[in-house]
UniProtKB/TrEMBL annotation:
It is found in: Cell membrane. GO terms for molecular function: ATP binding. Belongs to the ABC transporter superfamily. Residues 21-272 form the ABC transporter domain. This is ABC transporter ATP-binding protein. The keyword ATP-binding applies. It comes from Microtetraspora glauca. Its main location: membrane. InterPro entries: AAA+_ATPase, ABC_Ni/Peptide_Import, ABC_transporter-like_ATP-bd, ABC_transporter-like_CS, Oligopep_ABC_C, P-loop_NTPase. Pfam families: ABC_tran, oligo_HPY. Keywords: ATP-binding, Cell membrane, Membrane, Nucleotide-binding, Transport. It is a peripheral membrane protein.
């Protein structure tokens, strides 16, 4: 049994503006020699203009594949099959031609990749990385594109932007390269920015700088952000809503403050328990989640988290739970669990 598409309480109330992004029953199957790997398996969600949605989960949960599939960065046919709908401002991304998607990437949707070195051509100077998109999508002259590129580097906080345009990626620090990738993603003023693990391999000081930068640019430009991370601390305080992914599916979706205060899905609870706390005594052992994520070529029957869940019953091992909405006192949420975690203030036994 698959997840129910677009749970009612995750849609904007009647009369509100239409969502900027609608993802409806999205599925991505990667074809391997062992069989079809369901990297994204029936994901549905919405995102409003100016909103930040955090997508969290362990490595291998499908977060990055989801981000790339939403954007339309995939190769269908022998290696991959994609189904479902992704509506960006009413336009079905997956119904576009390759040329149509490239136009969309240049104007409406930008992406910050996990590893900046994989997004930057090592034999191209920084200036060329930026001016190519500006000239192609913005129709700027060579001189105007260079002036705009310098302005973008200044916008993302890179010192001496004019000199940096003449440098190669390897001549910049990791933090500067990440800022360049952000500048590239913002070059043509996108409505949506997908940030896939934007602080991976950066020290904590630079991590905060990059996240603060994204927050400032969002406020200035009014864009929506999908913030993909395996680190709950990265999305805490920065996302309006959080979607928790496990084994290709969303298992919990809620406003950020509600989810962090009172998780309902056992996987969400386990992730939060593994986060170090400042009030814990020194050298305290962190709680680990027993076991490993399932093989997505042959996932277990029933709930995919059941083999690792301390609350699992016989029904969990037989029937896959649907993602159902629950209207709480503070905000709407949805979770897929037969035996959800009881709220801390719940009465009774």
């Amino acid at each position: 049994m698959s997840q129910s598409p677009l749970p009612a309480d995750t849609r904007p109330p009647a009369g509100d503006p239409a969502p900027l992004l609608v993802v409806d029953d999205l599925r991505t199957e990667i074809h391997t020699r062992r069989g079809d790997m369901k990297a994204v398996d029936g994901v549905s969600l919405t995102l409003n203009a100016g909103e930040t949605l955090g997508i969290v989960g362990e490595s291998g949960s499908g977060k990055s594949v989801l981000g790339r599939t939403i954007m339309g960065l995939y190769t269908t046919g022998a290696t991959m099959t994609v189904s479902g709908r992704v509506l960006m401002d009413g336009t079905d991304i997956h119904a576009l031609t390759d040329a149509g998607r490239r136009e969309l990437w240049g104007s409406d949707v930008g992406m910050v990749f996990q590893d900046p070195m994989s997004a930057l051509n090592p034999v191209k100077k920084i200036g060329l990385h930026l001016t190519e998109s500006l000239r192609r999508h913005g129709g700027l002259s060579r001189a105007a594109a260079r002036a705009r590129a310098e302005e973008l580097l200044r916008l993302v906080g890179i010192p001496e932007p004019g000199r940096r345009l003449g440098q190669y990626p390897h001549e910049l620090s990791g933090g500067m390269r990440q800022r360049v990738v952000i500048a590239m993603a913002l070059a043509n003023g996108p409505k949506l920015l997908i940030a896939d693990e934007p602080t991976t391999a950066l020290d904590v000081t630079v991590q905060k700088q990059i996240l603060d930068l994204l927050g400032r640019l969002q406020a200035e430009l009014g864009m929506a952000i999908i913030l993909v991370s395996h680190n709950l601390q990265v999305v805490a305080g920065r996302a309006n809503r959080v979607a928790v992914m496990y084994a290709g599916r969303i298992v919990e979706l809620a406003d950020a403050d509600v989810l962090f205060a009172a998780p309902r899905h056992p996987y969400t609870e386990a992730l939060l328990s593994a986060v170090p706390r400042l009030h814990h005594p020194p050298h305290s052992r962190l709680e680990a989640i027993d076991g490993s994520p399932p093989d997505m070529v042959a996932p277990p029957r029933g709930c995919r988290f059941a083999p690792r869940c301390r609350y699992a019953g016989d029904d969990c091992r037989q029937v896959s739970p649907r993602l159902l909405s629950e209207a709480g006192a503070d905000a709407a949420r949805a979770f897929a669990c037969h035996h959800p975690v009881r709220p801390v203030n719940a009465g009774g036994s």
